[in-house]
Amino acid sequence: MVAAPEDLLRARGLHHEYEGSPALLDVCVGVREGEILCVTGPRGCGKSTLLGCLSGRLVPARGEVWFDGVPLHTLPVPARERLRRDRFGWIGSEPHLLPELTVWENAALPLLLSGAGRRRARRTACEWLERLDVGYCARSRPGALLQAQRQRVAIARALAHSPAVVFADEPTAPLHQADRAQVLRTLTTAARSHGITVVLASHDARVAGVADRAVTLVDGRRVGPDAPPPTDTPVRPGPEGRAACSLSA
Ligand SMILES: Nc1ncnc2c1ncn2[C@@H]1O[C@H](COP(=O)(O)OP(=O)(O)OP(=O)(O)O)[C@@H](O)[C@H]1O
């Protein structure tokens, strides 16, 4: 398999386990810049664990994760946290908002933390809230919102600082059936128009349907016709500091 130099994010030989139970086994995956990739598979197959490793929330027990030439798996914690805050957005299946902040302050948080002025952060956050049809809630506290509205705010927060990559783990789980397609469409349209790479995880084939490509996990392993062969050799950084591995997912 030929190396994919255009991969913005790539992982090789990922292993992870919880209290001795394996959750990921030798998983390789590459994600190109601007691509929408869906990680799919049955419940408990390792989708969330894979997104955790790719996004630097989890450090894999073994294996490597490279983002834009940076080795996330060996990055010191402060640098990894900074990179996650500035370059990544996260949407979970539950909208974890800060109850003491208003809706717009929640959506603006990554911008404010990276040093943007309050006025610009507010304007940008409110634009995203409008796109997600919750602009009218901007001054409310999260506690006054329905769960589906809170999830829209969480999506606005993930996009407002124009991250390079948004990770979305079952992002439509708290939404009613009728809202799901619309929110997914907003997320993917916004990502495409802003050149944001998206890594989605879902067991729902309809969610996978909005992606450019899907990779499937079963029992912690990648399966399917395009799954790379198992790895048994370590990845060596190439001359430019990038991993010399072949991962065109
Ligand atoms: N914090 C944890 N402690 C112990 N076991 C865990 C933990 N998180 C996940 N697991 C186990 O690891 C395996 C993979 O879990 P993971 O959540 O990554 O799968 P998933 O495909 O995202 O599942 P789901 O679709 O239900 O969210 C499962 O067997 C799960 O029970």
Count of extended strands:
10
The CATH topology of the domain at 7-96 and 143-223 is given as Rossmann fold
Largest sheet: 6 strands, mixed
Lateral strand order in the biggest sheet: 6-7-8-3-9-10
CATH architecture of the domain at 7-96 and 143-223: 3-Layer(aba) Sandwich
- What sequence of helices (H) and strands (E) makes up the elements? EEEHEEHEHHHEHEHEE
Task: Specify the CATH class of the domain at 7-96 and 143-223.
Answer: Alpha Beta
Number of helices: 7
Q: Please tell me what the overall shape is.
A: globular
CATH homolog superfamily of the domain at 7-96 and 143-223: P-loop containing nucleotide triphosphate hydrolases
Low-confidence stretches are 232-249
- Roughly what fraction of the amino acids lie in strands? 15-25%
End-to-end Cα distance, whole Å, is 10 Å
Percent in helix: 25-40%
Spatial extent as radius of gyration: 18 Å
Bound small molecules, deduplicated: adenosine-5'-triphosphate
SS-based structural class?
A: alpha/beta
Mean pLDDT: 87
